[in-house]
Amino acid sequence: MGGCTNCKGKSGCDHRKGAMMESVDHALETLYPTKTWGEPDDAASAGITREDLAALAEELATELRAATFVREGGDDEPCDYIYVLCMGRTPCVVQVRDHGVAAPAEWADADAPKMEGGGFTPTPGIEELYLRVVISQRARVAAVQQVAVDLVRADGGWLVRERPRAGVYDAPLLPRMQKLVAVLPAYELLHVDFGEIAHAPPGYEAGTWRELFGGAPSIANYLFYPQPTTMVSTSFVEGA
Question: Which residues pair with 160 in a beta bridge?
């Protein structure tokens, strides 16, 4: 969540991060006996239940005084997500995109892409900001990212662009981030800092990940989802 070289609490933080990474290393060794991405030992997986996932989202909504929304991971994503709405209002883009909520009337006024430099440039008509909690289905670990969601009008509906960052950076989000992290131990979830899991684990092989994305997978890709941690995704929401 930013540099901490001059922080007076750095030594204590380093000790905590050391213990955190020991737990992460142990989880990787247990889940990937071949030390190869894409070859997990599913028998060793131990995530939280659907009931606990829903309960966690509900508790976060109360503690953070914010709307929360669960999105279960896809077939290739061994994780689940909880979106915490920090800037925006309901019904929000995530509700419409993921939960079948009707698009609000003001979306009709969202800006359409503009022609600039010989091509269309999507100018966001609606911008929202979330804390996105990603929870592994393979181990009892969770991490938090700051995510911006933009919406622009398109033919027959809207384009939704999701832009995750490699951690939480904006100062207004940090108090909620701290409260969020404090809730996780009650669900036996270890919080891991994205900055500490954004690199490839030493001694592990990329497997098929290199063919899919190029380069080497980060620790986050072993624990959570396959795509790069800051990859921008775009989806289409059909209009009524």
Answer: 151, 235
